[in-house]
Design goal:
mainly alpha, Serine Threonine Protein Phosphatase 5, Tetratricopeptide repeat, 79% helix
Length: 143
């Protein structure tokens, strides 16, 4: 009898370790990318940057196609979010950052125990929020 309980304990430990490793491989690259720089670097358009941006756009379209067939595919959601962030870093267009929100929201729903995803989503929404809110009238503009 003790052998069966030991086997089940070992199976649970292995299952937990594999699950944590799988989720870590999805979350870590995104968190690391955002930690590298919160603002895009030199935004001057060069032929190389334009070509890379176009490749990233094609990559994003591919992930979008996968997500049309499998809306909750965690790998496609993760890669789409990473690709959108790379596009934002390259060009500095806030719309690329805005398009990260939906895949991140789905990942948070799929993996609510991953607090890093929730934190990342909050940070992205905070960066995007000032852009989408209407400008408040100032005291000078009301005179």
């Amino acid at each position: 009898m003790p052998e069966k309980s030991e086997k089940k304990s070992l199976q649970r430990i292995i299952l937990i370790a594999v699950s944590v490793a799988f989720l870590g491989t999805m979350v870590f690259p995104i968190v690391q990318m955002l930690g590298d720089s919160s603002q895009p670097s030199n935004n001057a358009a060069t032929p190389d940057k334009i070509a890379i941006y176009e490749q990233l756009q094609e990559k994003a379209k591919g992930y979008d196609e996968v997500l049309k067939r499998e809306p909750n595919n965690p790998m496609a959601l993760n890669e789409l979010a990473k690709t959108r962030y790379q596009m934002y870093q390259l060009k500095g267009d806030i719309s690329d950052l805005k398009e990260m929100v939906e895949p991140l929201e789905k990942l948070v729903k799929l993996y609510p125990e991953q607090k890093e995803l929730t934190t990342l989503l909050g940070a992205i929404e905070q960066q995007v929020a000032p852009e989408s809110q209407p400008q408040k009238p100032t005291a000078e503009s009301q005179k």
